[in-house]
Structures are given as C-alpha cells and as structure tokens.
C-alpha cells in the first residue's frame, strides 16, 4: 500500500483516514470497535475524531478500542478542540484556558499520554492566533501533543498562523482539514496551492459529499430514512442537497457502473488522487461501508478520467455548499 507523508513531518499515514464521527452515535460501541479493528487490519493507520463528537463518546470508544487491541502505537491518532462541550462561557473556543482543559479531557477519554495530531476544529474570529499557538506550543513541549493542525480554515488564516509561528518560533500547523469533494472544489483556488507550497497535509472531510456522491439521494430530493440528512435533522446538511449536486451525483453513479465500481468508491478515489491531497477522511456508519471503502486505498485514478470529472464541476467551483458549517464563509450556494 502507498503510505503518504503527513505534510513535511515524515510521519507516514494511510491514503484513507478512519473518521470516528459516527461512533457512539448512530454506530453503537460494539460495532464501532469492530470497525476500528477491521480498519487497522485493512491497512489504515490513521484515525480522526474530535472532543465534541457524540458528547465525547467517540473519543472514549476509540480509546477503549486501542487499549483493548494493544495497537495504540501503530496508529496516528488525531482529535480536535474548539467546539462547545458545555454550558459555561469558557467551554469552547480557541483560548488557552479552554485548550488546556480540553486536552486533558481528550487524553483521558482516549486513554493515551500523547495525541499525535491536535487540530483546531474551527478558526476563532476573535482570539488572536498567537494566543492559540502559544497554548499549542506548550502542549507540544510538554509531550502531550506531537503535531498540531487546522480544520476548515480559510487560506489566509492558515498563512497567518504559519507566519505567526515563524515570527515567534512557535510550533506550526502541519495539516489542514477542509471540506472537499467533487461538489465543492473551492479549496483548489487558494488552500491547495498554499498547502503544497508550505508543506501542509490536506485531510478532506466529507469526500462523498454527505453521501450525495455515493448515490444515497434520489433526484426528487426526498430523504432516505437512513441518510445523514434525514437522521441529523440539521438545516446545514439539508441545504447541501442542491438540484445540481444531485444531478452530478447521478452522473458519478453512471460512471461508476461503467467501471465496475460503486459510486462511493469512484468519488472517494477521485478525492484521494487529487493534487495535494494526503488522506481523505471516511466516516463509515456500518461495517459494510468500511468494506466498500478499503479497496480504494489500492486503486489509482486514471488520467483519462480526470477531464470527465472536470466537465461535471469545473476546477475551483462548487455546486453545493460544504462550508456552511462555519462563521467565516460568506458565500452561499443554492439552487
């Protein structure tokens, strides 16, 4: 299998990352643990979670699984901080106060002494970036965190953080985790070139566009009862179901059938093999989902197929909005 460097760190990670957002939520603990073990057996060595996922249950389950199977040292373990985890005024955000408490809670739930990749889940629009980076720097120096990363940041804020790290000799981001799929290619305009120039790994979330690119939603716009948009009842999720996005999803399904693949496999393969991409994050809800995705790690996108995808959604453009879960993106994409 082709393992890829996590930015310029030299740490080698699998070309797919196991996302744990479903664990402890729609996926019960016992099946979640089986999925983790199967993923490791299948060659995945990279797991991503967050302190906010399912009230901390995701971190707890991941920690329990790695404790029971004794494979913690074989895994590059990533989690995130920022989102609100309580009712108090300091139970969220990018302040030193919150980060220092949140990391201890994550370490306890994950049953580990060190988090390999600690990511700022969203950028703060009010707290100076040096305040956050100094807290991260202390965590790295103390050995509680090995590397730090960003998630869903605009390119200019990633660059600001890199410049601040350089100016004050602080630890620097090694990765950015943006939404990226065929329906929303906007990171290709600025973020991808930035990450390529400065050696940051790109770890896309929602590579299957919430299942739209896996053929989960019919063109009539109805919501299957086991789909994410139906289960979450989250307005932002439903806003992503644009008519044009559903049409592109149907075209991807046709292309996949012609190639003997599932739509999910082809969409994931496209994302995995795009320039600058390190490891797309898959979020299997069931073991069947994981088994569908694992073979993609050994596949390679054919060069002659790339223009076919570009014809569906032009590079740098979008037909559905996957940046609608943050405060900084002003543009909206609707039918």
Automatic annotation (TrEMBL):
Keywords: Oxidoreductase
Record GO cellular component, one term: cytosol
Pfam families, sorted: Aldo_ket_red
Superkingdom of origin organism: Bacteria
Gene Ontology molecular function: any one: oxidoreductase activity
Transmembrane segments: none
Domain annotation NADP-dependent oxidoreductase: ranges: 15-312
PANTHER family, A to Z: NAD(P)-LINKED OXIDOREDUCTASE SUPERFAMILY PROTEIN, NADH-SPECIFIC METHYLGLYOXAL REDUCTASE-RELATED
Name of the protein in its database record: Aldo/keto reductase
């Amino acid at each position: 299998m082709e393992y890829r460097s996590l930015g310029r760190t030299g740490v080698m990670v699998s070309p797919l990352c196991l996302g744990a957002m479903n664990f402890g939520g729609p996926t019960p603990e016992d099946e979640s643990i089986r999925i983790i073990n199967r993923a490791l057996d299948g060659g995945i060595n990279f797991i991503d979670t967050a302190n906010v996922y399912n009230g901390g249950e995701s971190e707890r389950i991941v920690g329990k699984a790695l404790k029971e199977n004794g494979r913690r040292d074989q895994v590059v373990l990533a989690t995130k901080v920022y989102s609100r985890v309580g009712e108090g005024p300091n139970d969220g955000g990018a302040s030193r106060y919150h980060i220092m408490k949140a990391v201890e809670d994550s370490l306890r739930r994950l049953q580990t002494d060190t988090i390999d990749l600690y990511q700022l889940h969203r950028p703060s629009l009010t707290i100076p970036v040096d305040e956050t980076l100094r807290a991260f720097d202390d965590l790295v120096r103390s050995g509680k965190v090995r590397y730090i990363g960003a998630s869903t940041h605009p390119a200019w804020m990633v660059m600001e953080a890199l410049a601040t790290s350089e100016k004050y000799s602080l630890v620097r981001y090694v990765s950015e985790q943006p939404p990226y799929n065929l329906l929303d290619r906007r990171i290709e305009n600025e973020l991808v070139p930035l990450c390529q120039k400065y050696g940051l790994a790109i770890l896309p979330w929602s590579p299957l566009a919430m299942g739209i690119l896996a053929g989960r939603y019919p063109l009539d716009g109805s919501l299957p009862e086991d789909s994410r948009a139906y289960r979450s009842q989250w307005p932002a999720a439903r806003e992503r179901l644009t008519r044009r996005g559903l049409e592109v999803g149907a075209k991807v399904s046709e292309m996949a059938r012609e190639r003997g693949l599932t739509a999910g496999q082809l969409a994931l393969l496209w994302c995995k093999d795009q320039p600058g991409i390190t490891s797309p994050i898959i979020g299997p809800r069931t073991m069947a989902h994981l088994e569908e995705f694992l073979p993609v790690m050994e596949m390679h996108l054919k060069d002659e197929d790339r223009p076919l995808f570009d014809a569906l959604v032009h590079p740098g453009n979008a037909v559905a909005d996957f940046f609608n879960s943050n405060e900084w993106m002003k543009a909206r994409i609707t039918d």
